[in-house]
Amino acid sequence: MTIFGWLQIGLVLIAVLLLVKPLGLYMARVFSGDRTWLSPVLAPIETGLYRIAGIRADKEQGWLGYALAVLAFSLAGFLALYGMLRLQHLLPLNPQGFAGLPPDLAFNTAVSFVTNTNWQNYGGESTMSHFSQMAGLTVQNFLSAATGMAVAIAVSRALVRSKVSELGNFWVDMTRATLYVLLPLSLVVTLAFIAMGLPQSLDASFVATTLEGAQQTIATGPVASQEAIKQLGTNGGGFFNVNAAHPFENPSAFSNYLNIIAMLSVSLALVYAFGQMVGSRRQGWALIAVTIVLLTTGIGLVYWAETGGNPVLHAVGVDALQGNMEGKEVRFGQAMSALYGTVTTGLSNGGVNAMHSSLTPLGGLVPMFLIQLGEVLPGGVGSGLYGMIVFAILAVFVAGLMVGRTPEFLGKKIEAREMKLAMLAVLILPLAILGFTAVSAVAEFGVGSITTPGPHGLSEILYAFSSAAGNNGSAFGGLTGNTPWYNTTLALAMLLGRFAYIVPVLAIAGSLAAKPRAEASSGTFPTDRPLFVGLLIGIILIMGGLQFFPALALGPIAEHFAMLAGQSF
């Protein structure tokens, strides 16, 4: 580790924190229905969209109606994208003449992008037409992100309202998230990416002659626009197979900085917007503090592990001062690879600028563990916020048990119904991750896809299902995922991680909205103080991570001790 490396990391985090307040205030105004500086241009478009779709913007929905709207909209998006991928060879803007996707791969990909996971069992530049990239994948990058934001806003309203059954209107919230937040930001970031050298064209691949005289096919296309919403919407699905390690997606240190800033800014700003909407900015900062503490700890651990290097390589004469550069781009180095890998898994982004499978065992453990914590640091746009609120509810319940009082969160009493629903939500991840991993680790059709036997092979499988159920989308590498078994089971894990979580969360919101909002008293446990921040961190680590420790002990931890003993797998 070097001072220069920490300076690089610090500059990115400072830039993000400077954006949190202005962007958060703007989003709070958007979702409160207040006028913004973009309203003169966008309000007529918004009204026109409601008129075309037959939506009454003033008609709100209860939690069940809101949840059904989310499910129906996502199902429609899945069917449209699945059909588009299967019929790709018949659709326009396919200059390379790519065939339609097989049924299992099309199913996996459609589920992946609709759930904001963006797991990719294909190489984008060798599989997807420009039409599929733009009209299919990029559109879902916007809509899946907007859906998560809408659910988070509905939960935020529930904590403000008193004795009502309505949470808002999903169609209005989703439209505003897309029109007022994601589209303008994507336009700005796209133009910045183009200026940095990212391609943005409808040309087919072209053939170049290398310095050695060989012929090389170089793919191009509408890269910059997809890259922008990939990061802002915490989608992570890259235009190219190697994602942000590809020089057309991430050509320089400046584009790498913008990638990380873009992926963090909206999710963290939405947490600030939550504080603004519930009438307590300190509450928003308390949740942001939890994120920063755990995220910077993760960054430090990965950076330390990667600069420490691998004793197995030291034994064969590799310079220990170089640390571990395997699987990393020289133009980014260890510090920015550690930052990117930690941020993308603390978020539910999933984009990568280095090969996670090539990290040291402890370096690879951190990204996997961050996903398993529930993708709340700060998680996906929207999904991270409502996931953090679930953990906050669990934290105040524990605090209430300690002092013998009925727990409250922002004036709402937390009772048996909310706790049952909260536990149902947090148990979804271990059920999907550990269940599918257990079967895949013993069945021939699961083990046959790993490239490295032993603890590392288990890590490949465990990371895959953690990433899918956590709606992250990054891959540990080495696992051949494009098989009927993994295409199907990973897709099922994605569906469980997204919708089996959203439904109980909205049910919690409906229950809280129907309760009166009590004023804070001398006996109220404050949830905007350092004590609560520490308690919430503890709950996240225990409830989110402890249940995965036995599996981690058999995978990356076992591999770490083998590495110290000079063994390799």
Automatic annotation (TrEMBL):
InterPro entries recorded for this chain?
A: KdpA
Query: Which residue spans traverse the membrane?
Result: 6-28, 63-85, 142-160, 180-198, 257-274, 286-305, 385-403, 424-443, 490-510, 531-554
Keywords from the UniProt entry: Cell membrane, Ion transport, Membrane, Potassium, Potassium transport, Transmembrane, Transmembrane helix, Transport
The molecular function GO annotations come to: P-type potassium transmembrane transporter activity; potassium ion binding
Signal peptide as annotated in the record: none
Q: Where in the cell is it found?
A: Cell membrane
Q: How does it sit in the membrane?
A: Multi-pass membrane protein
Q: Which GO terms describe its cellular component?
A: plasma membrane
Role according to the record = Part of the high-affinity ATP-driven potassium transport (or Kdp) system, which catalyzes the hydrolysis of ATP coupled with the electrogenic transport of potassium into the cytoplasm. This subunit binds the extracellular potassium ions and delivers the ions to the membrane domain of KdpB through an intramembrane tunnel.
Quaternary data: The system is composed of three essential subunits: KdpA, KdpB and KdpC.
Concerning NCBIfam families, the annotation shows: kdpA
* HAMAP family in the record: KdpA
Similarity comment: family membership: Belongs to the KdpA family.
- Protein name per Swiss-Prot or TrEMBL: Potassium-transporting ATPase potassium-binding subunit
> Which species does this protein come from?
Devosia chinhatensis
